[in-house]
Every structure is written in structure tokens, then in C-alpha cells.
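Sequence in, structure out. Go.
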Amino acid sequence: MNKTRSIKESELKTEWMLVDAMNVRLGKLASVVSGILMGKNKIYKADNLFCGDRVVVINASLMDFNDTTRNKKLYYRHSNYPGGFKVRTLEQMMEKRPDYVVRQAVWGMLPKNKMGRRMLRNLRVFADSKHDLDAQQPIAVKI
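Output:
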């Protein structure tokens, strides 16, 4: 009788993936990146191990949005002081912090536990095409 052998963490091989966000919708980008971080593209996915790859997203400031989404999507923040509630639109956030927009969209598609936080640590987002991870030789992913 054959038994299924569980994979060990020492047998896992992780790679670096490079995703270009230029002219890509935010939801499509987040779903592809979260799938790579969770390891859904691997044949040996285990829920108790980090099987995913590390992801570098470049050109986050050049993403494509629907016109209504640009003005209707809101980001909320509170400073924990009275009157410290702040609301910003997607357009304002893209001017100030486009990396935060991508990170929040990907976090919304990851599991909300310790493993999801570990997956999110393997995401690097850059607003333009310059990044400091050339030594890792990332593999380009086409969306």
C-alpha cells in the first residue's frame, strides 16, 4: 500500500519572482501575487509550511484603475487620538504611497494568521522600475 509522504521544510526550494505592475489592474495583480506567495503554483503545497516564492513588484505607481474606482475606493486610518480619523481616496494614496496600496490588496487575499503574515514579509514593492534585488536574479512573471 502506498502512503503519501509529507514534504519537509529542508526540501523546499524558494525562488524570487519579478512582477511588473505597469498597466495592470490592482485586483489582477493582487490575485497573481498572493497565489505565488501562497505557493499555489507549486506541486508540493502544504498549509503548515511556507511553500511560496518571494515576490518583487516594480512600477507600482503605474498601475491601471477604473475611473470610478480611483475616486470611490477609500483608505481609512486612525491615530488613536480624538479626532484622529483620516480618510484618503485611492488617487491620493497612489500619489503618496503606491507600495501601501499593493501591499494592502495582497494582504486582503492572504490567510489572516501567522502563516499569512510570514507570506506578506516575502513581498517587496517598489514604486518605480529600480529595485535593489538584482543579486537574487528574480524570474520575470508575465501578467
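Check: The chain has a mean pLDDT of 93. The helical segments are 26-38, 67-72, 90-96, 98-107, 114-120.
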